[in-house]
Amino acid sequence: MALSLDFLALPLLVAAALVFVSVLAGVVSTRVGFSFLLVFLLAGILAGQDGPGGLVFNDFRLSFWVGNIALAVILLDGGLRTDFDTFRTGLKPSLLLATLGVVLSAGITGAAARWLLDLSWPMALLVGAIVGSTDAAAVFALLKSSGVRLNERVAATLEIESGMNDPMAVYLTLALIGVVLAASTAGSGAGLSALEVLRSLALQFGWGGALGLGAGFAMAELLKRLGRGEDGGGGIRALLLVSGGLTVFAATTWLGGSGFLAVYAMGVIAGNRARRQVRSTLSAMDGYAWLSQAGMFLLLGLLATPSQLLPTLLPGLGVSLVLMLVARPLAVALCLVPLRFPPREIVFISWVGLRGAVPIVLAMFPLMAGVPGAQTFFNVAFVVVLTSLLLQGSTIAWSARRLGLALPEPDDLQANRLVFGDFVIDGATPMDTLCAFYGLPVPPDAPTDVATWMREELRRPAVEGDSAMLGAAELSVRALEGGRITRVGIRLG
Description:
The protein has 22 helices and 4 strands. The longest helix has 34 residues, at 84-117. The protein is globular and about 80 Å long. It is mainly alpha-helical and 493 residues long. Keywords: Antiport, Cell membrane, Ion transport, Membrane, Transmembrane, Transmembrane helix, Transport.
């Protein structure tokens, strides 16, 4: 009797065909403004038990495992592409948004969930914690595919925030699961003390930061010793980076720390300290990241059962709208107004608070912990992700242009004149010379040169596209070098 390989061929045929069709549909959909990731998610739904595919898939444990691995690879890839220079403008706002911003978003959204879903306060706040953080996969992918060039402050804030806010979301989710379980077993002596909560927070950030930084330095030295990759070993080095990143992710998680923070920190350090060696791996890393995103969103789509979503569809939409239009904007404004972010940048960062795979992965925590009514959390998280990718993900380019945040490409002379004005001067030009030549009022106590005046006027680290008014003229930052303004554009009257 011949050995049948149907057990291999049929599942492989279905999986490969599903990925192929999803990628093809995604390429077409991006041309009309739809999110690439949304296509993968919808493809999984259509292939699931309520769709034409009819596949029955409810393995939450496997999905949780795959989701965490995929997020680790995506965060590693994002970290490798993050330059140290971006931390000059993005670190402080990102840290605030990744900590205080997540807590505020979770609290406001939780209050809405208590009213819309009729839940107890611990359960409602758990809903807020699950959907409270932005998603690295969605942010990295959609900013890259949006086709717009953002100024360094906005792009760095969004990317670093999405890479660093997962630890706070995981911590809040686990802590609130403990509170919910303690409440459901009242009288059994279960509970969480304040000391345990603080210890868990310290472990998440402490181990995550320490192991991530240590592994990043070690990986950078290893890559340097292996050479620059002239032998065409970019693919091998990418595999080395991925396997090393997953090792750090698993070890940090096992020790009670944040594996997400660790793998992102490792990528940032290795990518900057071994820049030449890492550059040859980025093409292969891009493939790993896209494969991770495709597999993760397809699997999460298969998990969703639209017929089970219907009872919580309207409350879930309400939670999503409160998150997008109230919780996220308030949290972003409270964090960024003290840092003197312009209003249009605050509005854009609020709108691009994309939710992706992370809320769905976090929604599996209560399911695996046996929290009563945990299916509701998964259904609400899925509705939030779907609406975020549909509404926010498909309007990134439009909103950036509408708010005047899309910078022109350096070689597009006409677009540069429209944005920066018709005249360009050196940043070292004396202020009195500039004002005399263009007939502008000389500011009282004006510094010696234009670059210094603009820096003092902005009162924040300058980035390309920043502007300030001098009489009837608008002066814009056109170029920087090492954080110093080197060229200034002038638009008159």
